[in-house]
Amino acid sequence: MKAKHQRLILAAVALCGVGGAGVLAASALRDEAAYFRTPAEVQAGKTEVGEAMRLGGMVAAGSIRHQPDGVTIRFVATDGKASIPVEYKGIVPDLFAENSGMVADGRMRADGIFVADRILAKHDERYMPPQMGDMPKAMKAAPKA
Amino acid sequence: MIAELGLALLWMAAALACLSLVAGSLYLRNGKSDLAALVRPASVAQGVLTAAAFAMLIALFVRSDMSVELVARNSHSLKPMLFKVAGAWGNHEGSMLLWLTILGLSGALVAIFEKRLREDTLVATLAAQAALSLGFFAFLLFSSNPFKRLPIAPPDGQGLNPLLQDPGLAFHPPTLYVGYVGLSVAFSFAVGALITREIGPAFARAMRPWVLGSWIFLTLGITAGSYWAYYELGWGGWWFWDPVENVSLIPWLAGAALLHSVSVTATRNALRAWTVMLAVVAFSMSMVGTFIVRSGLLTSVHSFAVDPERGTFLLALMAIYIGGALTLFALRASSVAEGKKFALLSREGSLVINNLLLTTILALVLLGTLYPIVAEAMGEKISVGPPYYNKVAGPLALILCLVMVAGPLLAWRKDDGRKLWSRLPAAILAGSAVLFGLILFGGKVGVLPLLGMTVAGIVAVASLAPLWGRNLRRTPLPTWGMVIAHFGVAVALAGMAAESAFIKERLVAAAPGETVTVDDFTVKFVGVRPIAGPNYTAVEGTLIATTPSGHSFTLRPEARTFPGLMGGAPTETNEAALLTRPGGQLYAVLGQPVTGADGRAARYQLRLWWKPLVWWIWLGGALIAIGAALSLLGRAQLLTLWRSHRARKAEGRYA
């Protein structure tokens, strides 16, 4: 086998590999990338039940309810235009509070409740999930350090 | 005075970098060798001066000189000394100065120790290193001066983010930085070799210790960072595919590819253009990683607040370096002479596949990290999380591990596969034993963890195969290094797969005195008590975990509150408690109090995990680093030097 042929074969293998990886990546991105939605977008029907997504909004005043089991909480996420009830089982992050911003990973349930797997709260002014940067200033009612 | 001295040292170092660059370029253009003689001493002096400037900054933090803006913003006089020192690099300006210090010191080390390269290639390499430094000097001096004084000194500083006040984290960023910046030397070697067209085994041997060294630091940094995230964040995970984790993983992948391809170039003088290309890519990825996070394009826990102007400066700098190096590569690649030929079934062939897989994984991780930026530019807000990465990187990593089984058992140039076939059955036996054991007794296990554990079994046995039938005392150190590093991969893989397959979790609200069971453990929640630390107060829970065999262990998770300094809001962190057992770790987090009917805290949220074999992940990481270090020792031939030194001494005694 000549060196040139060998290079050609290697190049072909590499090309197939890269092509295959591209297809793999594209399909994985289509299936697994989660959209960031605001409550108004959810209400407008932009998401389907059971689809993995990120919900960003403010925790409505007076809406946090602890369930009797002690570990489940319910609250309402709002963006001023629409409100979505959220249920979360777990230990909420330290800065999670009413009237402050939060981002939740999870999915909509058929009964219209958003079930969160993970909740992120605004950590301090140095860290914020990028999507929250665009929310109206008033919603970022976070403590200034 | 210290601050002014530091600034003056920085300007002098920048001037020396300028001198190295100009003198080096003139020499390469006109061949004036009197100028070339300047480059080595200038590089050494630049490194020393930059390090001295960094020492000045540390001194300012140690003395808590609040008239310096950086100290006032990031330190506090009551902080423990370790965090005062670590505060020097726990911020944007200080970390940039650290970056420059390592850049300068690596240049100095090359200037002092590199003897194997041709003089012109070495000068070109040092000039390239100086050019890299110069850009970052410009950035530091014009837009991020760490020594800036405040017009009026505040009474005390603002403190350091409580999450970052952890001994492990004090050393985590410098470790990663040494790794990132060590790759800059590989970059400069590649640029130097492209300029003088000296691409061959000598260049590869000069570059190899740097690649190995940086990769050791990257491995240690990533392993330690993963452990930090695991116990400090209190989320129980060891890898979140957070952008910042990804940007440390990407240079690591590039470094792994590079250290394999560089050994092909060093031993067989093949894959020459590819090795040069990878050297450029590896440091480019370090820069992209560090500065995309810094520029504020991607936000994450680790990013420092940076104004957009600085971000643009960094992006422009990066574009110049990466663009310049790639242009040079494109101009010279066609003139890089063709390397030595090899058959597809050979050590080289397997390393080519290794490189293809590593770079593919790299590309996919990079794609997932950058995709949200691209999507946002097109008006869609998207987050790419663990499911994507597990789906794309998982299968490829498993295939990579299988290639790792074969590679070391193949001969260079051409192989008949006999050695491979004779040693494979034991490995396959081990793999199938794991597989059947899991299917019979493991219960319901996901496909990826199942394959992961099987492959780990195969790799664990096969990685030792190169040692079979060898005189162990005469086996060269690099071979030992390879065997240990590959074995470490198997250990880490087994840990990852076992943890994700068999993890047990309990989340309860428990009253004092209540018991909770998680896996085989009976955990009694004794109660809570308030405690005070040096700069925080905390609620400490006491848990007594009992194993089936009757041994009891106490765990004390804490919920800490750091007072807000300078009128800020208090910050809370959860300190998890860990119980390490041979079979895994019990991980306990104390959550919030749950108020009862009378309004008093009657119960506390408790989150308990049993994580089988989880510590194997970091053990594997440490083994990989140890393996690489042995390989480096062997390559640097320190042992040979030491032995000949001893031999000479012995001769002297008898003479």
What best-fitting shape of chain B do the alpha-carbon axes yield?
A: globular
Give the overall average pLDDT of chain A: 77
Low-confidence stretches of chain A: 123-145
Tell me the span between the first and last alpha carbons of chain A: 68 Å
Report the span from N to C terminus of chain B.
57 Å
Secondary-structure-based class of chain B equals alpha+beta
Low-pLDDT residue spans of chain B = 300-305
Question: Could you say what the CATH architecture of the largest domain in chain A is?
Answer: Beta Barrel
Average of pLDDT of chain B: 87
Number of helical segments with 4 or more residues of chain B: 18
What is the N-to-C order of secondary-structure elements of chain A (H for helix, E for strand)? HEHEEEEEE
Please outline what is shown here.
Chain A has helices at about 5-30, 40-45, and strands at about 35, 55-60, 65, 70-80, 85-90, 100-110, 115-120. Chain A has about 140 residues and is α+β, with helices and mostly antiparallel strands.
List the helices and strands and how they pair.
The complex is a heterodimer of chains A (145) and B (655).
Chain A (H helix, E strand, L loop, with lengths): L2 H30 L1 E4 L1 H5 L9 E7 L5 E2 L5 E7 L4 E7 L11 E8 L5 E8 L24
Parallel strand pairs in A: 1-2, 5-7
Antiparallel strand pairs in A: 2-4, 2-6, 3-4, 4-5, 6-7
Chain B lengths: L1 H29 L2 H30 L6 H6 L6 H7 L4 H22 L5 H25 L23 H30 L4 H32 L10 H26 L3 H23 L13 H26 L13 H31 L4 E2 L2 H21 L11 H24 L5 H18 L12 H26 L1 E7 L4 E4 L2 E12 L4 E10 L5 E4 L2 E5 L8 E5 L1 E5 L2 E12 L5 E12 L2 H22 L1 H17 L1
Describe the structure.
The complex is a heterodimer of chains A (145) and B (655). With 145 residues, chain A is α+β, with helices and mostly antiparallel strands. Chain A folds into two domains: 1-33; 35-139, OB fold (Dihydrolipoamide Acetyltransferase, E2P). Chain A is 24% helix and 30% strand. Chain A contains two helices and seven strands. Chain A has helices at residues 3-32, 39-43, and strands at 34-37, 53-59, 65-66, 72-78, 83-89, 101-108, 114-121. Chain A has a five-stranded mixed beta barrel with strand order 2-4-5-7-6. In chain A, α2 links the parallel β1 (34-37) and β2 (53-59). Chain A is elongated, with a radius of gyration of 22 Å. The termini of chain A are far apart. Mean pLDDT of chain A is 77; it is low at 123-145. Chain B is an alpha+beta fold and 655 residues long. Among the domains of chain B are: 1-161, no CATH class; 504-615, no CATH class. Chain B has 18 helices and eleven strands. Chain B has helices at residues 2-30, 33-62, 69-74, 81-87, 92-113, 119-143, 167-196, 201-232, 243-268, 272-294, 308-333, 347-377, 386-406, 418-441, 447-464, 477-502, 615-636, 638-654; strands at 382-383, 504-510, 515-518, 521-532, 537-546, 552-555, 558-562, 571-575, 577-581, 584-595, 601-612. In chain B, strands 3, 4, 5, 6, 7 and 8 form a six-stranded antiparallel beta sheet that branches. In chain B, α2 (33-62) packs across α4. The longest helix of chain B is centred in the N-terminal third of the chain and has 32 residues, at 201-232. Chain B starts with a helix and ends with a helix. Chains A and B meet through α1 and β1 of A and α12, β1, α13, β2 and β8 of B. β1 (34-37) of chain A pairs antiparallel with β1 of chain B, so a sheet runs across the interface.
